[in-house]
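quick one
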Amino acid sequence: MAKTLTTKEMKKFDKFTIEKIGIPSIVLMERASLAIRDIVLKRHYDLSNVVVVAGYGNNGGDGLAVARLLKIERANVTIINVGNSKHESSERATQRKICNYYKIPTTDDLSALNDATLIVDAIFGVGIDRPVAGEYLEAIQAINQTTATTVAVDVPSGLNSDTGTPLNEAVRADLTVAIAFNKLGFGTNPGKEHVGEVVVADDMGVYYF
Ligand SMILES: NC(=O)C1=CN([C@@H]2O[C@H](COP(=O)(O)OP(=O)(O)OC[C@H]3O[C@@H](n4cnc5c(N)ncnc54)[C@H](O)[C@@H]3O)[C@@H](O)[C@H]2O)[C@@H](O)CC1
Ligand SMILES: [K+]
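structure w/ potassium ion:
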């Protein structure tokens, strides 16, 4: 059975895996994204209009890698960027360059969500540390207003993964693919209402301490 961790433990674990074991962050990102792709394909979701909503951290990097992997599977994919590009993580920048090569359309217009058949929520993962506001809040609200199936990458954006409490507002996902470990807050109320079904992608080639 998958282990359940707090955010602090998760961050410590990621640091250990990257710095001590030496598995590069971008490799972990690829493995996480391959796992998400496989889960999405297995579910036979309608991939005629996949919209990946991506922040500028590594959760967004996961989202961009999923966008590319689904595009390779001949899905129609659009990326909506949310946030400040000046804060882009280096792994996310790598994924952006690859997505450009694959000519995946990119926008910051939330109306691209209107006809989505599947939404991949990759705005925030375990890095969220304060209440959501402004364009982040608008994006989360826009996702929740659609009827499209929503798959959250690692954590429904806006959710405190330790307590399961929304930091102002959080995505209500149909499926959450928790990366490497389950999160403590996913079993709480109201956490359960936000995560939907939880699948743990734990075949990450990482070390269990
Ligand atoms: N190498 C790694 O560490 C791995 C990370 N992974 C992914 O990376 C995620 C964590 O990535 P990050 O640590 O980059 O963090 P996130 O991508 O969750 O968040 C990005 C940044 O947003 C900022 N932020 C926090 N709350 C905010 C708010 N309310 N409004 C505006 N900005 C806010 C913070 O500076 C935070 O670092 C995981 O959830 C997972 O999806 C996976 O790719 C596996 C490997
Ligand atoms: K997310």
